[in-house]
Amino acid sequence: MAQDKSSESDFRPFVVRTDNIAKELVSTAKNYGLKASELDFNLLEVQTFLSKEESKDVEEEVGTDELESLEDKTLLADSKVHIRQLYEIEVIKLDEKGKFAQLNLSIGANPSMSRLFVTVKPGSVVSYYEGIEGDLRQFINKRKLRANMLIGFWNGKLVEEIEAFVAKIQVAGTLTVEEKISFEVGCALEPVKTVDDVLIMHYEDSSDKDELEKVDHAKRGFVKGVAENELLIEYIKARKGEPGRNCRGEFIATTEPVESNAPAFSVSDKIEVVETDESIQYKAKESGYIVFENNAYDIQVEMEVTEISFKTTGSIEAGVDTDVSINVKEADAFKDAIGAGMEVEVNEINVDGNVGNNAKIKARKVNIEGQTHQSSYIEADEVKVNIHKGMIKGKTVEISRLEQGIVEAESVEVFQATGGKIVAKEVTIDTLSSHVNITASSKIEVKHLKGSENSFTISPVLYAEEKDSLSDNEEELVLQKRKVRTLKEEVVTKEKVLNDNEGAIKDLKKRLAHYKKSGAKMPGSFVSKFKEFQNLQKHLLSLKNELKQNEDMLELLLAKTDSFQDDIFEAKIINHDEYKGHNEIRFKLLEPELELYHVPRGGVGEKCFMLKFDEETETYSIVGSDNL
Fold this sequence. Notes:
Elements: E1 14-18, H1 21-31, E2 39-51, E3 60-62, H2 73-76, E4 82-93, E5 105-109, E6 115-120, E7 125-127, H3 132-146, H4 158-172, E8 174-176, E9 181-187, E10 198-201, E11 225-226, E12 231-236, E13 244-245, E14 251-252, E15 266-267, E16 271-275, E17 279-284, E18 288-293, E19 296-300, E20 302-305, E21 316-317, E22 325-328, E23 336-338, E24 343-345, E25 348-351, E26 354-355, E27 360-362, E28 365-371, E29 377-388, E30 391-402, E31 405-408, E32 411-417, E33 420-432, E34 436-449, E35 455-458, H5 464-500, H6 502-518, H7 524-564, E36 572-575, E37 584-589, E38 594-598, E39 608-614, E40 619-625
Parallel strand pairs: 15-19, 20-22, 21-24, 22-25, 23-26, 24-27, 25-28, 27-29, 28-29, 29-30, 30-31, 30-32, 31-33, 32-33, 33-34, 34-35, 34-36, 35-37
Antiparallel strand pairs: 1-4, 2-3, 2-4, 5-6, 6-9, 7-8, 10-12, 11-18, 12-17, 13-14, 16-17, 18-19, 36-39, 37-38, 39-40
Helix pairs in contact: 3-4, 5-7, 6-7
């Protein structure tokens, strides 16, 4: 409605017909020097028009009783269909003291504007009155109209949600919204997005990487290990979307999909192909590593390389749970078969040569025909090494020659040891030279002793995790002992109070019985004293129960400590040869905390050393004998 520029004081309500209420309010506000937010309107009439032709000029009005026909999805998906509304409104000034003046409500939509939502913000206040439900529906419709949305149909859950909201208001009388409330107030036809085809190489992206993370060029994926049933490759088929229509009545067209990544490769019978209407999935039938040769994918388990180095393969991380086995053929004693800084993680690895500095191997089985560098690290269930100078963690370890290397395992066999450290449950050494530190929990056995300055220790706790568990147990023991001691002192104190007042309590009981028998009223002080006595008895009983529970817990903790050293009296240090020079034998106890020390002299009765306990003197000692 065109008007000459006027002042705010000139404004008078007026009626106008428009198909865009928001635009009309902005125009009117500008003419009168107002803000659009200072204006409101009364909705007098709504007309809905429908056109099913290419030209919007040929249209027919849809009656109020026919609006439900506009819910037809086939109709809404027709690009020829046009829907619009014409409104007759009375433009008025906003009543800042209206019924919903304190209701902070806004309209939002999803990206396609095919669904509308109302949000009631915290702090909003609204009071109940008769007819509020209809007024609230009209209030929301006016907000929809300000957003240029159609009303009267496509209401989604508007009716049910308003009923639920009004029920809350009615219960409260005056409702103050504490948390944000959101609900759907409009739903037209949501379009289905067109999907372009895509080929996803899952096996190449098995680990997430931060964009800012420094790239490790040594780990460039020479071998891609895969597990059984692992999804290797996935082809997402191109799919044309479906058109929609937004809550303004506008048609939302769909686009044609782009198809440019269809699989052009084949796969072996070790890879399962699962095809659906949406995708084609390629899954590993068995574990191993994936190979792409002659435009075909395959899964293999055994690989042979000359060397593993930065220049050739980089680090290999196929995983210990795959079936990947690698044979490294470089056998030159002056070269490294596994180069400096390389990391290898496979199921099994056989190395004909040497393992370089800072190299790391993790596998189920490891066999090294050469030597390991002093800074190398091997972790595996079964390990065989010719010359070991680095670090090994395993279950069963066999070493031809130990040269200052470190071994931590369950069972260790060494043919020749010249310096180093061994920690295991059982240790067997064929020929022992000097400066070897051996700690075991069950047995240390030496067949030929050629040197000195060796240390033999029997300890019930060997590994870091056991030491941590023991440390935690000891801390719990200290706390539990303190708790038991405190409870015992409290029980003794309460029992003393009861014992010291036993005579007075018996006398009090007699007096109370006399009063009860004669029907006389008992003095309040007597009753109070008796209740105090009863409460003390109850408290003492509760303390005794608590003490019993904590004593049981203490027994469990002590038993756990004892379990660490159950077999220490069966443990043996055996030397089939004679001790030469200075060698040390130690037995460590946990409870009592004790370390016994002995230096064998190289005489009779020193083939086998064990720990003994003398029950008469309650002392521990290291005892030698020639009984193996």
